[in-house]
Design brief:
This protein is mainly beta and 303 residues long. The chain has one domain (6-265): Jelly Rolls, CATH 2.60.120.10. It is 4% helix and 49% strand. It has one helix and 24 strands. A hairpin with a 2-residue loop joins β23 (273-275) and β24. It is globular, with a radius of gyration of 20 Å. The protein starts with 5 loop residues before the first strand and ends in an 8-residue tail after the last helix. 41% of the residues are buried.
Length: 303
């Protein structure tokens, strides 16, 4: 087994999207090869309704998949194909935009006016860019949850992990999307197939992630029986950790424990032509998408 090196640790950056939604962006609109097959990751967490209630009105997507995971509040959605619905706390929507779709997402807070969720964009390979759009809406009750003997808790949204398989399937990048909670002070190792690109996103508590460049993946300044240990290099709230090649991620949870997403997928390794919510392989395909938007042929008829 080989420990994945930590290539980069960085804080998510405040930004604004939609009709004025304040959120934090961990990555996106930069180098698309960095976390291929993933293009963008947003954390939309707010305690003030005025910072999110205007939502994400009608907008197009082509050539990608959008994965929305709601923790608090609700998200009402609708699209140009006539689909409507509401995502509640713990629910997931995996939307394959494929050949093109217009949709809207309108968040609402919980009883305390709070909203929290994530959206991840996954790229589609060239042979699936123009596939028919589809949805996979998954309720919280359908997502398997595993609890280990040390109190570690893992929600398996997609992919297989610890003998459980997530309910989202048939995704091009063969992704693994896990929501992991590790109790305070617990040291834990998670295996990831070597061929996948991987990142973690910490959103509660903190943890020290081992680095292959450190001797034996050292996590602690002291590790002596009976002595107080001090965890160093803690990655805390809204932190992205980007990993290199290997098949293990090891961490030690901080004094309040840690909750994070661990996401990985098979790289597509194809050219990317990207403009806003449309991602194709060539500039010619991108320009065609713009023409389709302008002349009303962006949405392909169902066959």
């Amino acid at each position: 087994m080989s420990l994945r090196p930590t290539l980069e640790t960085r804080q998510a950056v405040p930004t604004m999207e939609g009709a004025g939604v304040r959120l934090h962006r961990a990555f996106g609109f930069q180098d698309p090869t960095e976390l291929d097959p993933f293009l963008l990751f947003d954390d939309f967490r707010n305690d003030r309704p005025e910072d999110f209630e205007k939502g994400f009105p009608w907008h197009p997507h082509r050539g990608i998949e959008t994965i929305t995971y709601v923790l608090e509040g609700t998200v009402e959605h609708g699209d140009s194909l006539g689909n409507t619905g509401t995502l509640g706390a713990g629910d997931v929507q995996w939307m394959t935009a494929g050949s093109g779709i217009l949709h809207q997402e309108m968040p609402a807070g919980n009883a305390r006016g709070q909203m929290h969720g994530f959206q991840l964009w996954g790229n589609l390979p060239s042979d699936q860019k123009m596939t028919a759009p589809r949805y996979q809406d998954v309720t919280a009750a359908d997502i398997p949850v595993i609890t280990d003997d040390d109190g570690t808790r893992v929600k398996v949204i997609t992919g297989s992990f610890w003998g459980q398989t997530g309910p989202v399937d048939g995704i091009a990048a063969d992704p693994q999307y896990l929501d992991i909670t590790v109790p305070a002070g617990v040291k834990k190792t998670f295996k990831i197939d070597t061929y996948r690109r991987a990142f973690a996103y910490v959103f509660e508590g903190s943890a020290a992630f081992a680095d292959a460049s450190a001797p034996s993946g050292v996590l602690l300044e002291k590790e002596v029986a009976g002595e107080e240990v001090n965890i160093r290099d803690l990655s805390g709230d809204r932190t992205l950790i980007r990993f290199g090649t290997g098949d293990e991620v090891t961490l030690q949870a901080g004094p309040e424990g840690v909750r994070f997403l661990l996401i990985s997928g098979a790289p597509i390794d194809e050219p990317v032509a990207w403009h806003g919510p449309i991602v194709m392989n060539t500039q010619a395909e991108l320009m065609q998408a713009m023409r389709d938007l302008n002349n009303g042929t962006f949405i392909r008829p169902a066959h």
